[in-house]
């Protein structure tokens, strides 16, 4: 029996596929693509979902004063910093990357405020998120700790001509010779570490104890943020390379020393105040040396104050969410920025009274009390005695003493002093006049014995001019 020819509505399932199968295949493929796209969107990192800053929120569109207030540096310095950090920025594995400029600006805003969102005109920038700032801070801080960047902006004077420049700066301002820097330590709070908790606990809170050496112009010559808050000032300096250099220079008969506070012990390479010298101590060579030493050593204290007032992320009130290594790198980065600002004469943002009191209290409770049993090096004590004698022999009266005398004079005395005195007739006898002095009023004549040719020791207050 012959086969019947296929009808018009017949569809072969062997030779070709039906139309509805093709529609089902197309629908399934589109559904699979949509599913893959949704899965990829879910797998995106939080950094990719961060909205890009709008053109109208470009920080370089701010006024110069608003830019410096927010980022602490000028626009030109910010552009130069971005160009310097581009070659040393760490590589990122993210498929979508933010620009170096946006990361540097976010990091500077965090350094200046200690907060993850920058404030401009009392409002927060919505384009800045917590994740983006934390990532940017880590990357920029790591880049600023690159050896090439650190050596460019923080440099201790190792050459003779560099040391002479620093020595001349201290001698011209404070009349104290052979000083290559002032040294002190400051505590920067950290998060509670997983390891070495005893090393970082300063009997009050966990911190990094940062050693800073500055010159007479408030520039930071050396910074060491590797030590924990439990170490003493002497222990940090004893293991530092600067101590080795100064010891070898003094042995080579080139006198060089640092000026340290009362928490340091006397050594040949560091000069500290004479113990048991107070404001009520009578005038003596030791008192004269201690007062000049305090004036010169105040430079490093002022340097630390400006460092913390300009970069509030280092203050005790800052968030304690970073580990010790990150905080140490942040300290070095802020010291670099401090030298950049100081070199270009940028203004310093002053601390509020609340911030000053809080910082003073935090530093006071973090530092251990001064030990009464400090072991002083005999050679160091001898070197200090030679310096005390030299300063006492080279003391001088400055023009400030004369101005202070005029300030203490009453208005009536200044009028009488300004009036011309009539010259008596040569044949007229001049009778000596009896001066009736007020017993409560100090004698102005004896305050300046040098004007009368009397060999009396100078009164305290004749300091070299700043």
Assign an overall shape: globular
Q: Termini separation (Å)?
A: 127 Å
Order of helices and strands: HHHHEEHHHEHEEHHEEHHHHHH
For the largest sheet, list the strands in their spatial order.
5-4-3-6-7
Structural category: alpha/beta
List how many beta strands DSSP finds.
7
Report the total helices: 16
The poorly predicted ranges are 9-21, 38-56, 119-124, 398-406, 424-466
Radius of gyration: 35 Å
Percent in helix? 40-55%
Strand content: 5-15%
In round numbers, the mean pLDDT is 78
Main beta-sheet annotation: 5 strands, mixed
Short account of what is shown:
By secondary structure, the protein is α/β, with parallel strands linked by helices.
Task: Describe the protein's architecture and organization.
The protein is of the alpha/beta class. The protein has 16 helices and 7 strands. Strands 5-4-3-6-7 form a 5-stranded mixed sheet. A two-stranded antiparallel ribbon has the order 1-2. Strand 4 (207-214) and strand 5 form a beta hairpin. The longest helix is centred in the middle third of the chain and has 26 residues, at 285-310. The protein starts with 18 loop residues before the first helix and ends in a 48-residue tail after the last helix. Mean pLDDT is 78; it is low at 9-21, 38-56, 119-124, 398-406 and 424-466.
